């Protein structure tokens, strides 16, 4: 997955570009950073018993200071029209803030500097599609809230098997795990079996990869599951999921090691899961396939 998962970084920019001689419409139409869901947010009620558990520093400040790195659509990115940071992660953290009766103050930072800033006390927590893994758990705790993996997409009505895509053209974003590891490994397996290799078509931007599929320039696309899910939601008449999500790992919010904030955040997001608000937020952004029903602290798989 992305550098956020320790393997790679995605840069999703809204732009009109050319790919293979065809106009890539994604940066100008349905797959841009300007197309945030228009469903109005429903106010979430404060839960006094949970708010009372917040560390005194946060109670007195009346806000959670959250380190975030953008862009990573649809999870967190800057709306070019308003300048505000928006996304699935933002909506979920705003709802957590409402449960705890505090505001959310998003501070943009380089991704690799967020965890050190949490350790230094500059940020209360981080929220940038961090994958919870054992190595990171040595320095911070994670409140897990989502499951993300790799998801393939295909043109509607034109099935592609991600485990047997020999001879197919598959779009990826350049420098991603899908580009450097996943698709090449599957192509090698095809070659070793005496079958045609996969033709990998790499683009600088994820939006261009999605549009190549929408325009029928490729047979399939491989991307991180929330990114692929959002592309499918934005182009639901043209593309659909090809098989299930695989190699899934938990996303988590990093907090200082052994901080009392961790259990409070875990209980707040669990409250949203139990009330159904969490599911509504996931569905609003088209990422419900990664929704979980139980939040845990430090649930890394490896």
TrEMBL record:
Which key words are in the record? Signal
Cross-referenced Gene3D superfamilies: Periplasmic binding protein-like II
Q: Where is the Solute-binding protein family 3/N-terminal domain?
A: 63-289
Q: Which GO terms describe its cellular component?
A: cell envelope
Signal peptide feature range = 1-26
**Database matches in InterPro entries:** SBP_3_CS, Solute-binding_3/MltF_N, TAT_signal
Question: Known CDD domains for this protein?
Answer: PBP2_MidA_like
Q: Where would you find this protein in the cell?
A: Cell envelope
* Pfam families according to UniProt: SBP_bac_3
Similarity comment text for this entry:
Belongs to the bacterial solute-binding protein 3 family.
Full protein name: ABC transporter substrate-binding protein
Lineage of origin: Bacteria, Bacillati, Actinomycetota, Actinomycetes, Mycobacteriales
């Amino acid at each position: 997955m992305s550098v956020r998962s320790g393997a790679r970084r995605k840069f999703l920019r809204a732009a009109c570009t050319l790919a293979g001689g065809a106009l890539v419409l994604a940066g100008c139409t349905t797959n841009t950073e300007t197309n945030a869901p228009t469903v109005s947010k429903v106010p979430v009620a404060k839960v006094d018993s949970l708010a009372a558990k917040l560390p005194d520093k946060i109670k007195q400040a009346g806000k959670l200071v959250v380190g975030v790195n953008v862009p990573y659509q649809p999870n967190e990115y800057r709306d070019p029209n308003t300048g505000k940071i928006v996304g699935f992660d933002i909506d979920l953290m705003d709802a957590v803030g409402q449960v705890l009766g505090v505001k959310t103050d998003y501070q943009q930072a380089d991704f690799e500097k967020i965890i050190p800033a949490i350790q230094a006390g500059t940020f209360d927590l981080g929220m940038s599609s961090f994958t919870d893994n054992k190595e990171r758990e040595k320095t911070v705790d994670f409140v897990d809230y989502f499951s993300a993996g790799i998801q393939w997409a295909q043109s509607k009505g034109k099935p592609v098997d991600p485990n047997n895509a020999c001879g197919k053209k598959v779009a990826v974003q350049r420098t991603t795990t899908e580009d450097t590891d996943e698709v090449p490994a599957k192509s090698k397996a095809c070659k070793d079996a005496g079958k045609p290799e996969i033709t990998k078509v790499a683009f600088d931007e994820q939006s261009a990869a999605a549009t190549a599929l929408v325009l029928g320039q490729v047979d399939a696309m491989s991307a991180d599951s929330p990114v692929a899910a959002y592309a499918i939601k934005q182009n639901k008449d043209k593309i659909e999921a090809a098989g299930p999500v695989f190699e899934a790992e938990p996303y988590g919010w990093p907090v200082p090691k052994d901080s009392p904030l961790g259990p409070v955040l875990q209980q707040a997001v669990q409250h949203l899961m139990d009330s159904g608000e969490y599911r509504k937020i996931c569905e609003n952004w088209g990422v419900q396939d990664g929704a979980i029903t139980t939040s845990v602290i430090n649930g890394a798989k490896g």
